[in-house]
Write a structure and sequence with these properties.
The chain has nine helices and no strands. The chain is mainly α. It is elongated and about 65 Å long. It starts with a helix and ends with a helix.
Length: about 210
């Protein structure tokens, strides 16, 4: 009850931090999709790029989030704005599931369907947009779903470099040794992650080929 009372008392600040959190997650996810989906398509059609691209995305995943923020701080233009730095870091972390699922989805399209489409005279671009992507969209959305949930959690760490978000409450609570303040940041972040997971999961099921 103390947590609920604290959240009611600080409703305006909680709303502002939640919107900042959504901004960081939303922008980084869009950028990750714009980068990750084309990369997944490229490595699906050009297997020689498969290992270096996936290895690079895997290496990024192994770097602790605070360490990555620290590496990026001295970078000109980026380090001057903590929100830019946080968005770049979250984008890099979100790439792996999107690239991997796009690759898996494209490669998982039935070869007989692909050959039939080619036999009908479809060009490579028509084959991609009219056959491969529609048949693999649910797998790609599954990767985006994972990326969004990861980003919601990691965005709390962005408060450590002054990028805002619900992590502000978590770090403040840790400094004050106050469970109410920690939970005031952790509970809304968990709700955001669950909501995003359910929403993208619903879209994934609706777009699954029948």
């Amino acid at each position: 009850m103390n947590v609920i009372h604290f959240m009611r008392q600080n409703y305006t600040q909680l709303l502002d931090l939640s919107l900042e959190h959504l901004w960081l997650v939303g922008v980084s996810t869009v950028l990750a999709v714009l980068i990750g989906v084309p990369l997944g398509i490229v490595i699906a059609h050009r297997p020689s790029f498969n290992k270096p691209v996936l290895a690079g995305a895997n290496i990024i995943q192994t770097i602790p989030s605070l360490a990555l923020f620290g590496f990026l701080l001295p970078v000109p233009w980026l380090g001057a704005r903590s929100d830019r730095l946080a968005i770049l870091a979250l984008t890099l972390y979100a790439l792996l599931p999107i690239i991997r699922n796009t690759y898996t989805g494209i490669r998982g399209v039935d070869p007989a369907v692909v050959e039939a489409a080619r036999g009908m005279g479809l060009t490579e671009s028509q084959l991609l947009f009219q056959v491969e992507l529609p048949l693999s969209v649910s797998v790609i959305l599954s990767g985006i779903r994972v990326a969004v949930v990861i980003s919601v959690g990691l965005a709390t760490i962005a408060a450590a470099i002054g990028a805002g978000g619900l992590g502000e409450f978590i770090f403040r609570g840790l400094a004050m040794v106050d469970d109410r303040v920690i939970l005031a940041g952790a509970i809304p972040a968990a709700i955001l992650a669950l909501t995003a997971d359910i929403a993208v999961g619903f879209l994934e099921r609706r777009l699954r080929p029948r």
